[in-house]
Amino acid sequence: MATRTTTRETRRPARTAEPVETVAAPPDGGTSLGRLTELRIRGLGAIDDVTLELGDGLTVVTGETGAGKTMVVTGLTLLFGGRADPGRVRANGRAGVEGRLALPADSPVWERAADAGADPDDDGTLILARTVSAEGRSRAHLGGRSVPVGVVAELAEGLLAVHGQSDQLRLSRPAEQRRALDRYAGTAHLELLDRYREAYTRWRQLAGDLERRRGQARELAQAADVLRHGLEEIEAAGPQPGEDAELDAQARRLSDADALRAAADEARTALVGDVTGDLGDDLPQDASAALAIAERALAASDDPTLVMLAQDLNDAVAVVSDVAGQLATYVADLDADPARLAEVMDRRAAITALVRKYADVGDGVDGVLAWAEDARRRLDELDVSDEALEALEAARDAARTEVDDLGAQVSAGRRAAAEGFAAEVGRELAGLAMKSARVSFSIESDPDAPGPEGIDEVALLMAAHPGAPPRPVHKGASGGELSRVMLAIEVVFAGADPVPVMVFDEVDAGVGGQAAGEIGRRLARLARRHQVVVVTHLAQVAAFADTHLVVDKSPDTGAGVTATDIRAVDGEDRVRELARMLSGLTDSDTGQAHARELLAVAATARAAA
């Protein structure tokens, strides 16, 4: 992995067209969810301009206090639609974050991105960008298109989960806790929940329709009368599809019958002459006679070429005769009846009146027929007769019965899953320096008040130590504890969560020793199916990383401010960074020996996992 640091705007080399990247499967054969391959941060906090090429698995970010480690998390949060803080923008007046996402072809993100007009880059990745000015103005771009920040935030729900000291909204929301429990309950439970949602929607629609009809019976009856009157008027006229255009054509033919007959007669005479003998002998030679003379002259020759041309003339005589016959038929069928013309004009006037009354401009008679079809449908919805109301009430009650039945099944599934879920999270917490913590679910059901997600109010509770009363987890845990609870939950769900990128900001706060190693072990396990980015100050956690980034700060004498550099370390550089984290001294022999031991222990633990 390479890490680039710049202090000025850089230009990327031109890309050549490549097939869409296929994201490599994780080591255990699971399906990859995608990953963030590149992150560029400009003008944010202490960062001037850095570009990080991120790898698979677990990436740790370390560095001295105040170096700007959390700016990496801030940049990620900003990139994915988080709130823009103008106070983080450097003196140059604009901060920017860009990211490159490699996603599998079946990722739902592609469909939403396409709806927003976004296009993949030449290498098949999706580029996100966000800029923030010192005045607080913010812009977002997705796949080369400017989009509302809300679109990116919507995508982030399926792309990124951030867990940190000050970002615990996901875990603190009861709705999120309920979703976590439903997901833990399994596929069959989720399918049952989908059926409940459909039944609930149907019940609410029927109940709302019934209430509307009863509460607005008079208004609806009047509206129905208007629709019925219109339908009666249309049905009495009986317009047919396309009839207005046909009437226009008929009216033109009837009005111009004499002129049309004269034109047809003149053309027929020019082709075949006066077949009736009524026009005298002074007519010019017709086309048919001229062609016949020419055909006979050529046919009398012995020259093969002229004989062939004679045959072509013979074919031409046949074509002329055929056209003349069609003209004769046209003249014979031409109607010059004034009564018929009057009839057509009256019909056209009646159709025009309907079009003006019931169709939008330009829709013609087809718009009238569409209005009639819609009116018939609306009449069913406006029916306030006793029979209609009784049928609707019966349908509503049947739907409510289905809601009650499915709601009870969903509630039972949640209660059955709650104990196992809490026990698994508790076991994970035991290894995260929270051995005394107890996690449980409070599930309060109200069958008389079903909601869109069931009949239950679900809350995740935690007792921090023996004897402590269970409290909502976001109230019963400190910031560091809350991060570890979230980590425990994510580990329980490893491989099931569709979010490809997870970020943990100092989840090891207040932890040391063996517990720190357990945090590293669990993060590494989570990183088998997800891309995990962790900001940490513990060497025991950093030792488990696939990619180790170090944030350094140095005075920028030119600008008079502190600048931040981010570099990737491996080999001896990584040993020295771990030694600094352990002892504060990069060149300490004892610290380096301890660092090498940590790396060996972590490698053994990862291999055995």
UniProtKB/TrEMBL annotation:
InterPro entries on file: DNA_recomb/repair_RecN, P-loop_NTPase, RecF/RecN/SMC_N
Coiled coil: 372-409
Region (Disordered): 1-31
Endoplasmic reticulum listed as a keyword: no
One GO biological process term: DNA recombination
Gene Ontology molecular-function annotations: ATP binding
Keyword Manganese: no
SUPFAM superfamilies linked: P-loop containing nucleoside triphosphate hydrolases
NCBIfam families assigned to the protein according to its UniProt record, in alphabetical order: recN
Protein name per UniProt: DNA repair protein RecN
Lineage of producing organism: Bacteria, Bacillati, Actinomycetota, Actinomycetes, Geodermatophilales
